[in-house]
């Protein structure tokens, strides 16, 4: 344990990155859960990652605009493909999402097969490198987040299936390069699962609260114990969701008992 590792110059940009991911993923995750297409996030994130890997395979500059365009193009094409499949084969949509995920993941492995740093690159895309996020990286993501949230909350009822998938692809493309596939999926699904039985008016606030607590505690714990941040935050998301629901259940039980007395 080392408390000296709690350096705000490193942890603050990482926490802000987590908040930006949560900003779009909490509302989108609740919609994903409602639609019953839970693994869409994994599929689109993996397709976006395949775009990044493809750009690297072609020798394009990491973090350059070409890589961003490749990732976004791949994610948008994946989103459009999923939209078409949902219309064409709605009864097997979840299975098809799984197949798309496996194909994209396998293609990424094949492209990295002869890359001496392929294993490290793949690990970064899966688990992320949130502690190495800089404030400069967050500016374009923040602008994109504002645009996505504006469209989502302003035009939610008029977006339709295609609009939802396109916004989803935009959010995931930005997020996967900041925090990795595992955290993208967890930020989308775990808060949504944790508040699924809450009152509708409290779901959004509850999801954001659970996510924020998990990110700040996960980053602190990973720094103190020198553990991979992404993996710790994933566990903190799950534990925070369970604990908050247990506390609420306990408070309700105490209140019911007092009223009974």
Descriptive account of the structure:
With 261 residues, the chain is mainly α. It is 81% helix and 0% strand. The protein is built from ten helices and no strands. Helix 6 runs antiparallel to helix 7 (160-179). The longest helix has 32 residues, at 229-260. The chain is globular. The termini are far apart.
Rg from Cα: 19 Å
Order of helices and strands: HHHHHHHHHH
- Specify the overall morphology: globular
Q: Major sheet, described briefly?
A: none
| Residue windows where pLDDT falls under 50 for at least 5 positions | none
Number of strands: 0
Ends distance: 47 Å
- Mean pLDDT, all residues: 86
- The percent range for helix content is over 70%
| Number of helices, counting only DSSP H or I runs of 4 residues or more | 10
- Report the oligomer: single chain
By helix and strand content, what is the structural category? mainly alpha
Residues in β-strands, percent: under 5%
């Amino acid at each position: 344990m080392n408390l000296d590792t709690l350096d705000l110059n490193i942890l603050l940009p990482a926490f802000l990155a987590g908040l930006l991911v949560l900003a779009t993923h909490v509302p989108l995750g609740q919609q994903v859960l409602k639609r019953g297409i839970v693994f869409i996030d994994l599929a689109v994130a993996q397709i976006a990652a395949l775009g990044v890997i493809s750009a690297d395979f072609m020798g394009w500059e990491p973090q350059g605009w070409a890589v961003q365009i490749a990732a976004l193009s791949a994610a948008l094409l994946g989103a459009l493909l999923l939209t078409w499949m949902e219309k064409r084969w709605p009864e097997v949509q979840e299975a098809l999402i799984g197949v798309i995920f496996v194909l994209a993941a396998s293609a990424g492995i094949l492209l990295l097969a002869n890359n001496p740093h392929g294993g490290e690159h793949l690990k970064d895309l899966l688990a992320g490198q949130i502690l190495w996020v800089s404030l400069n990286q967050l500016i374009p993501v923040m602008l994109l987040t504002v645009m996505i949230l504006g469209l989502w909350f302003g035009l939610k009822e008029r977006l339709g299936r295609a609009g939802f998938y396109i916004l989803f692809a935009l959010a995931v493309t930005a997020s996967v390069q900041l925090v990795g596939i595992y955290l993208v999926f967890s930020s989308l699904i775990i808060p949504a699962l944790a508040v699924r039985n809450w009152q509708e008016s409290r779901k959004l606030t509850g999801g954001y609260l659970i996510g924020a607590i998990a990110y700040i505690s996960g980053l602190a714990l990973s720094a103190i114990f020198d553990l991979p941040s992404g993996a710790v935050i994933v566990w903190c998301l799950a534990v925070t969701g369970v604990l908050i629901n247990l506390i609420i259940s306990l408070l309700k039980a105490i209140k019911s008992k007092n009223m009974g007395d």
